[in-house]
Design a protein that fits this description.
By secondary structure, this protein is of the alpha+beta class. The chain has helices at residues 5-12, 24-55, 101-109, 116-122, 135-138, 158-162, 165-168, 177-197, 201-215, and strands at 61-67, 73-79, 91-92, 126-128, 154-156, 231-234, 237-240, 260-261. 46% of the residues are buried.
Length: 263
């Protein structure tokens, strides 16, 4: 797997560089929420780590290389929700037998994402943005969707809480790797483009509010349709826009709604 920053940028067809950072106001929000979240979730997180160790052989945390802002790789940590099985696809479709019983609970509540507050605090991630992708899957993104790797990835995002697989895929069509890359990725990046065109503090708070509704099982408004092609200006940068988002129930290649990545 390619992990060199310049080589990854070359494979993805993006310019290696600093990428697009959140605004100072959003960065302050990141730091405050991450500090409070880690302080509140510290002891529960330790208890969950112990539960993972006791219910499934292997480490409590799963670590995997993901792409950060500007396509720069970093090692993402999350609570391990899958058995230590090197086989199988890189995405984790709904009902994947590799997911442990405890892992299903962690994923359904998104508690497996709690360690990523540390990445938010360090500035490797932000609270709201596109989910961090693996280099292997990123290399398979359609060229028109690779602009997304210029931005800092998020703990949550509009595509994670406002889109379902069923919004994109016909009934009975599985979310395998090919479908994920050719159908779900364009839909997700289209939804992300609408937010990233104007990533204001108010818009960020709106996505966070929708995330709380989503986690509580409350209805979340469907995303407004972005243009299928074209460009939206983002602070002087061009962002390709597209369509909608992901999951019969929950979908994402990791951490959120249906097709997910990692253990």
């Amino acid at each position: 797997m390619v992990t060199d920053e310049t080589a990854i940028a070359r494979v993805l067809g993006i310019q290696a560089g600093p990428g697009v950072s959140p605004s100072p106001a959003r960065r302050v929000l990141d730091i405050v929420v991450a500090l409070v979240g880690l302080a509140v979730a510290g002891l529960p997180l330790l208890a969950l780590m112990l539960a993972v160790r006791l219910t499934s052989p292997g480490p409590a945390l799963f670590r995997q290389i993901r792409l950060g802002q500007g396509g720069r790789p970093f090692v993402l940590a999350k609570l391990r929700s899958m058995r230590l099985d090197p086989g199988g696809p890189e995405i984790t479709p709904a009902g994947d037998p590799r997911v442990t019983p405890l892992g299903r609970l962690l994923r359904s509540t998104s508690l497996d994402e709690l360690p990523q507050l540390w990445h938010v605090l360090r500035g490797q991630m932000t609270l709201v943005g596109p989910r961090p992708e693996t280099p292997g899957l990123a290399a398979g993104y359609p060229p028109g969707c690779r602009w997304i790797f210029s931005f800092r990835p998020g703990l949550t995002g509009p595509a994670q809480v406002r889109l379902r697989d069923g919004d994109v895929l016909p009934p009975g069509v599985p979310a395998d790797t090919q479908t994920y890359l050719t159908r779900l990725v364009p839909a997700r990046t289209a939804v992300e483009a609408t937010f990233l065109a104007r990533p204001t503090l108010w818009a960020t708070l709106g996505v966070l509010a929708d995330t709380v509704r989503y986690l509580l099982g409350r209805p979340v408004p469907a995303p407004g349709r972005a243009p299928v092609s074209g460009h939206a200006s983002v602070s002087g940068r061009a962002v390709v826009s597209g369509q909608r988002r992901v999951s019969g129930r929950r979908a994402s290649p990791d951490g959120w709604p249906s097709a997910r990545t990692g253990r």
